[in-house]
Amino acid sequence: MSGISGGHPRLLLWAVCALLPCNPQLAQAGAPPGGGGGGGPLNGTLLFDSAAYGGHSLRNCSCASEIQDCNDALANLLCSCRTVPRSSLPPGGLSVRGGLTVWVRQPWVLRELLNGSAVQDLRLAACSPAPFPAQPLTLFGLRRLRLRSAVQGTAHPEQTLTIAPGQERGRGRSPASSSTSTSSSSPFLVSFLDVALLNGLSPLKAYSVSSPPTPTLVQHFPHLPLPRPPPYPHPPEAQQDCLLTFIY
């Protein structure tokens, strides 16, 4: 699965900001309202790797009610689930409509399943206390991110991020047309996420960079890893601006 290799979100941010206008106001990070503790998903998609299946496959579940994080037995009982072999995962990432929750035990799930995926609402819950390496993950179209750490007593057990283009923030809410249409005034969203945030050791930070259309951006930054996005409900137009968000 294509993605970032040999780079770190902070280094990429510094390189891009040297030549492009950066706007730290576009991404809002913080703790989840009400102190967190929510499971997932509600009327959404749940994916997790399970030791019961040898660690080489995933459970793909559709759930009508919230499920306690990392409770495989409960998910299998209350959700409609099927097994997906690791070998059959799409090479270019997923394209998910609606909310997606992923319970993560092994780093390969992030690398092979999510890297290069198109998802608007993503929740990642670590199910293993083993530390996650500082590895960047590329996501397309991301508007809301929720992270949950499995480390007991960590300083930042749950964190959230909302990404909203400037014109939407100015209106105080997302325009009704933003979920159904794409225009040149609505930038194509590309996010680079440092998965080490799942360790819960540092507060989530994010910087957004308004960039020119993808063809122009690649000309100026030939080594900036922008994987080809998978089939997406609203693919970027040739002259559509991009909003690059670095989450670290």
Automatic annotation (TrEMBL):
Protein name: Uncharacterized protein
Signal recorded as keyword: yes
Low complexity: compositionally biased ranges: 177-186
Range of residues in the leader sequence: 1-29
Pfam family membership, one: ECPIP
Disordered: region residues: 151-186
Entry keyword Signal: yes
InterPro entries: ECPIP
The entry's keywords: Signal
